[in-house]
């Protein structure tokens, strides 16, 4: 029997469409299906087109072009129209493009599609409108699944999908763990219904297990089919009263990670179009679950690292309040090299540490953990702050050899301070880290210049001088990493201005509230996803530590002071000293006195750098007496040679320092010390000034 006779016997027609000539060749059965006499025919494209529904014909062009581009089969459902406009039948066309010299011929078959049974999913007409609905559904489903950030969100999206023409009323997602099949989530079932299907062996005679085991979809259009193919587990499924089931493997990159079940209370024929939709959804679901699993693993790792590396601040300390915050960068594992620590020392003292290892990767986090442990060990041994940082620098240099795996330098900035809660004395050593800021009891916020050395890990023999300050009752000290200052396009200066304004507005609230506000000033409210001027800008990690002395305040405001060391090799810091003094005197009523004070400080520090071989230590303090507010400035050096009053001529370029103090200061003097000397002056203003109000 010829092939044509076999095809005719099963009501299947053959046709050929030549794209170059526009001629369509039909055999007798194909002609009959198109409503023509049952005999072979050669027709023009226009003549054939007139036999199809206009909407369906418009869909053919896209289907054929896709098949030509991908070298796949072109499949479509087409309604055949009578001359009077009636639909006489629906046919399925399946064809294969044969490409030669840029043109192609479509060779295929036509077969009549039977009318769907009542209640089946195929009841919806297969028209261009249905295809557009299917494409819109897949686009919406893909977008929703791509935006899901957790397994729970993926399952909620999957449960809310409304498939065109056949929406399942029961869903279940199974995962593979070793040789077991587990239920990850389900929808459309009661609590506890998943019990019999949990921890099921992959060898079980169950459709989901077979789909996950073999990587092939299983379609069960009727309860009879389910019972015939899976008699062992049919009693488990029977009680749910479903009529049709689809079990599809969840496959990503060639690996089957589980299975997806879609169950229907109405019969579903699972036509090729319906299977195509289910297969596409299963692929998108598998990818979404994989992404969500990776994201959840990263979040769990991130939180674990943070819990391990960000310690609790320990028990309360009488007279001292401490608050801290750590906010990771928004990228990667959300963990970087910033850290803080609080260490209990012998004798009731405590040490506070804050630092930043270069980088925002896992290696930075690992180095941070090692460095934090080393710093705790050196501090616990009783070393002073300068020795702690010197040893930490040698340690970091030793474990990195100055470079990371990519050949670049790997270093860390750090600020280490010891505080005596009884007296408020602070000993600070700094390694390339931003300087601390102090909010005085009258609300003034000052950046405290402190001596420092190179970042840790660069030079194993680097020295880290110690600066001593005192924190009075009512004062708050803040130390932070550069992320708090520079995030949002700021440099260090503009970043300090932003933070200083916020700290000055802090009045009577807890340190925890201030810590939250400092972070929110950079990142926005706690959600970190607010639209607008406070939108999320996680450019760098942030660590911040706040330390406040909480003893009884004096009747008169506590004095505020600044301390600064100007080294012989840093004459440019004289300008910093002038700026620091102006900040200290921000509320001094007499501007001429402020200018005089700045001029005298500049002369005093310059004389030390010119006439001695040592550094200049500047201490400036503003305090209140019973009848006046007083500024006292001391500049100390290590030379025993006392200054002499000179009488410079008009053209002389030096020798006026003591004369200036004699003319401008209310009091001045030179005090010899055990090693070196101290030159000082005082200025006063009436006690009614705002700085001395009770």
Automatic annotation (TrEMBL):
The lineage of its organism: Bacteria, Bacillati, Actinomycetota, Actinomycetes, Kitasatosporales. The keyword Disulfide bond does not apply. The keyword DNA damage does not apply. Residues 317-549 form the PPM-type phosphatase domain. This is SpoIIE family protein phosphatase. InterPro entries: Bact_Sigma-Reg, GAF, GAF-like_dom_sf, HATPase_C_sf, HATPase_dom, PAS-like_dom_sf, PPM-type-like_dom_sf, PPM-type_phosphatase-like_dom. CDD domains: HATPase_RsbW-like (cd16936). Keywords: Hydrolase. Gene3D superfamilies: 3.30.450.40, Histidine kinase-like ATPase, C-terminal domain (3.30.565.10), PAS domain (3.30.450.20), PPM-type phosphatase domain (3.60.40.10). Residues 136-299 form the GAF domain. It comes from the Bacteria.
């Amino acid at each position: 029997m010829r092939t044509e006779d076999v095809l005719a016997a099963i009501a299947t027609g053959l046709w050929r469409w030549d794209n170059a000539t526009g001629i369509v060749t039909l055999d007798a059965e194909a002609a009959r299906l198109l409503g023509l006499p049952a005999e072979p025919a050669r027709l023009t494209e226009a003549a054939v087109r007139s036999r199809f529904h206009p909407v369906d014909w418009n869909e053919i062009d896209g289907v054929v072009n896709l098949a030509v581009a991908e070298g796949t089969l072109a499949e479509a459902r087409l309604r055949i129209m009578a001359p009077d406009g009636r639909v006489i039948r629906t046919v399925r066309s399946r064809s294969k493009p044969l490409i030669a010299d840029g043109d192609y011929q479509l060779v295929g078959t036509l077969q009549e599609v039977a009318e769907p049974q009542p209640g089946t999913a195929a009841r919806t007409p297969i028209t261009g409108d249905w295809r557009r609905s299917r494409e819109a559904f897949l686009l919406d489903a893909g977008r929703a699944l791509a935006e899901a950030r957790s397994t729970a969100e993926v399952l909620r999206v999957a449960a809310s999908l409304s498939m065109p023409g056949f929406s399942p009323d029961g869903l279940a997602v199974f995962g593979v763990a070793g040789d077991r099949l587990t239920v990850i989530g389900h929808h459309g079932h009661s609590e506890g219904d998943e019990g019999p299907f949990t921890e099921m062996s992959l060898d079980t005679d169950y459709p989901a297990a077979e789909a996950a085991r073999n990587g092939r979809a299983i379609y069960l259009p009727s309860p009879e089919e389910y019972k015939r193919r899976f008699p062992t587990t049919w009693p488990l499924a029977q009680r749910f009263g479903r009529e049709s089931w689809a079990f599809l493997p969840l496959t990503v990159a060639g690996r089957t990670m589980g299975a997806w079940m879609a169950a229907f209370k109405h019969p579903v024929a699972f036509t090729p179009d319906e299977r195509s939709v289910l297969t596409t959804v299963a692929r998108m679901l598998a990818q979404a679950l994989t992404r969500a699993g990776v994201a959840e693993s990263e979040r769990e790792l991130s939180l674990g690292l943070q819990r391990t590396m960000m310690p609790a601040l320990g028990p309360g300390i009488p007279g001292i309040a401490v608050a801290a915050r750590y906010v990771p960068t928004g990228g990667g594992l959300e963990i970087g090299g910033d850290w803080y620590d609080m260490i209990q020392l012998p004798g009731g003292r405590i040490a506070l540490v804050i630092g930043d290892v270069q980088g925002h990767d896992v290696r930075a986090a690992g180095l941070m953990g090692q460095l934090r442990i080393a710093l705790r060990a050196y501090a616990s041994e009783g070393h002073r702050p300068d020795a702690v940082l010197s040893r930490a620098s040698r340690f970091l240099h030793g474990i990195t050899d100055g470079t990371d795996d990519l050949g670049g330098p790997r270093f860390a900035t750090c600020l280490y301070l010891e505080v005596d809660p009884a007296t408020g004395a602070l000993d600070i050593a700094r390694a390339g880290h931003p300087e601390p800021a102090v909010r005085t009891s009258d609300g003034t916020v000052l950046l405290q210049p402190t001596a420092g050395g190179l970042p840790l890990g660069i030079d194993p023999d680097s020295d880290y001088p110690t600066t001593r300050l005192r924190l009075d009752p009512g004062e708050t000290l803040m130390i932070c990493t550069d992320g708090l200052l520079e995030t949002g396009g700021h440099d260090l200066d503009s970043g300090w201005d932003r933070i200083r304004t916020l700290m000055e507005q802090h009045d009577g609230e807890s340190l925890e509230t201030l810590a939250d506000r400092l972070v929110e000033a950079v990142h926005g409210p706690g959600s970190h996803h607010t639209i607008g001027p406070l939108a999320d800008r996680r450019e760098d990690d942030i660590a911040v530590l706040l330390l406040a002395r909480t003893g009884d305040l004096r009747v008169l405001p506590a004095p505020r002071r600044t301390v600064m060391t100007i080294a012989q090799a840093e004459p440019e810091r004289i300008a910093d000293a002038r700026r620091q003094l102006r900040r200290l005197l921000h509320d001094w009523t007499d501007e001429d006195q402020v200018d005089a004070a700045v001029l005298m400080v500049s002369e005093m520090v310059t004389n030390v750098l010119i006439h001695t071989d040592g550094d200049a230590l500047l201490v400036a303090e503003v305090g209140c007496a019973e009848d006046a507010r007083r500024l006292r400035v001391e500049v100390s050096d290590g030379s025993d040679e006392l200054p002499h009053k000179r009488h410079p001529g008009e053209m002389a370029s030096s020798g006026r320092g003591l004369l200036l103090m004699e003319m401008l200061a209310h009091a001045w003097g030179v005090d010899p010390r055990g090693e070196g000397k101290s030159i000082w002056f005082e200025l006063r203003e009436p006690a009614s000034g705002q700085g001395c109000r009770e």
